Amino acid sequence: MLNLDNFYKARYVLSRTIRKTELVRAPKINPECDVYLKPENLQETGSFKVRGACYKISQLTDEEKARGVIACSAGNHAQGVALGATAHGIKSLICLPEGAPISKVEATKSYGAEVCLVPGVYDDAYRKALELKEEKGYTFVHPFDDENVIAGQGTIGLEVLEQLPDVEAIVVPVGGGGLISGIAFAVKSLNPAIKVYGIQAAGAASMVHSLTVRHKEALDSVSTVADGIAVKEPGDLTYEICSKYVDEIVTVTEDEICGAILHLLEKEKVVAEGAGATSVAAVMYNKIPVKGKKTVCIVSGGNIDVTILNRVIKRGLTKSGRYCTINIELDDRPGMLVEVASVIARCGGNITSVHHNRHGNSEKINACILRIVCETRNDEHVEEINRALKDSGFKVLKGEKAED
Questions:
Q1: Catalytic residue (choose from 38, 49, 195, 232)
Q2: Partners of 250 in beta bridges
Q3: Which of 29, 246, 290, 317 has its CA 20 to 30 A from that of 373?
């Protein structure tokens, strides 16, 4: 079982490999608590995973190293294993889900690993890695259900206690559970009063489900923008540790994750991937009881695919009321569009697109449906614009946040 001495050993071994990421105070995330970020996105591989992977590889026997290592990953563990293996002069083969972001696939190759793309999600890549392990004799480096991997991840907990001794709550993204297992074990062993909260994406809540049914159980499927924590089933060891040491695990929605990514990017100048932003989302949207507490959010990774960043930003703008669509039933006659635009302009809205549909579902023969998308300040601003349009005599059919 886990031993705190192994965590201190891991910290010593990793001191020559990883960055000791400094805490960053971030009061804008939630003014009702004292929030700090632990930016593990600043590790060389862009993720905390390098800690567990490098420590695990450092503890392999010479025989295990000679056989080479194999791993499975949604992307971040892959890069950690590739970096650690190459640093030790070891061959590495990484099985990744076929849908893994291209940026993560290419980054894994750049660290010296051979990549095998597997149809499906993380769990499918895991099965393929086990098949190849048996077939080729590789040494398997598990992404989370391994004592040395957990000890490596747990060094984050030791650092937090050193950097903020009076911390009251630590908020951690959860996929398979390796990160939160390491942090919770280390922190609770040294100070049981500190709360440790886990956060999962609602579309991949495998640990939440298992803890609810009180035994480890796989989900049928997972779907989330937080690909780094899209895991169908937690590990045996991580499930037991979470059951014993973690105070609570909750979920956040896709909109909330996108809102957190946008906030981190715009307000904190931090680039986070979906998984890394879940901890911030939980605090932003009051999913956990941290009001008035010194709270550390682990930003576990920053390897977001730039090709989807635009969609994530737009979704985040929508969630925060910064981008909205308004549908109006309008008499189809000259000057009406100008009047609508004038009302919105007086309220300070910025129109970005207009769609004029004469064939829409209107009660009047001579009417049309006007669909306007505009930039706004917040939810209250959206309501102000809708109210001003109604007060000006326009029939607002649907005032909502834009989805496209």
A1: 49
A2: 199
A3: 29
What is the predicted pLDDT for the residue at 361?
62
CA distances to 39, 65, 91, 95 from 107, in Å: 19, 22, 16, 14
pLDDT for 402 equals 43
Distant-in-sequence, close-in-space partners of 117: CB < 8 Å, separation ≥ 6: 95, 96, 97, 98, 100, 105
Q: Tokens in use for 374?
A: 């505009």
- Distances in whole angstroms, Cα of residue 96 to Cα of each of 19, 146, 316, 334, 335: 25, 19, 28, 58, 57
Which residue, among 97, 96, 77, 86, has the nearest Cα to 141 in the 3D structure?
A: 77
Q: Which amino acid would we find at residue 117?
A: L
Annotated active-site residue 294? The verdict is no
| Residue 49 bears catalytic tag | yes
**pTM for the predicted model, two decimal places:** 0.85
* 174 has pLDDT over 50: yes
**186: Cβ–Cβ under 8 A, 6 or more apart, which residues?**
4, 7, 154, 155, 157, 158, 161
Check: CB of residue 35 under 8 Å from CB of residue 217. no
Overall average pLDDT of the 111-136 stretch: 91
Distance CA 213, CA 111 (A): 40
| Separation CA 197–CA 91 (nearest Å) | 37
Q: Give 48-79 pLDDT, tens digit per residue.
A: 999 999 999 999 999 999 999 999 886 789 89
Q: Residue 51 and residue 54: Cα distance in Å, rounded? A: 6
- Please name which of 103, 133, 99, 105 lies closest in space to residue 119, comparing C-alpha atoms: 99
